[in-house]
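Suppose you are handed a protein chain with no further information: no name, no annotation, nothing but its sequence. What can you learn? This example shows the usual starting point.
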Amino acid sequence: MNTILKSSRLLSLSATRLSTSSSCGFFQGSASSRSSFQIRRNCFNFVTMKPTVYVTRNDYARIGLDLLKEDCELTIWDEPSPVPREEFMKNVAGKDAIFCSLNDRIDKELLDQAGPSLKVIGTISVGFDHIDLKQCRERGIRVGYTPEVLTDATAELTIALLLATARRLLEANKEAHTGGWKSWSPMWMCGTSIKNSVVGIVGFGRIGQEIAKRLVPFKPAQIQFCSRSDKCLTAEELGVTQIPF
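A reasonable first move is to predict its three-dimensional structure. Written in structure tokens, the prediction is:
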């Protein structure tokens, strides 16, 4: 939810500002033709059309899409799955902005198809390997992404998986549903306690550090990590131990 909100706000603000700054002027035409366009007045009282945004799937959080709709005219791929390449290419032409995810490849071919009107790309992802940044820089296209927004969620899911694995929760759940559990047994599916154990973390960036913080209340004997860079000060603050990579 935080990802879609952050990305939507950034895209809406950027598309609106860029559209306004590059197309200020008065709409020419009859009253009837003007009514066929969604128009608004900016703070300088110029009349402008809403910037157009292509949204690559329909299952983004509704609150984020509603935020975009306040200032932008949306064209949405009406499926809860990545938009097919052919469909993407067909509908991106002439758009002011693209709202995408890591499944959508934004390369030279697609940027050529979008044309010079494309001013901003917003992706709801921490990474941006799917976007050709070199091409975007050459064309003056701004790119927005959502760094750090998934750090806490990833750390929480890691702890959940650690607990599920150590305490054999998935195995026990399966046995309970398939008749494998007959009666109480003192050692059946007990698993392993995190308390007094040694827990290792590979990598100690933002996510690794958040995992370590969440592990401390479980009272492991030691939390160890390996990292390509020296994290001695951070390790000392968190009470964890760095070992050779």
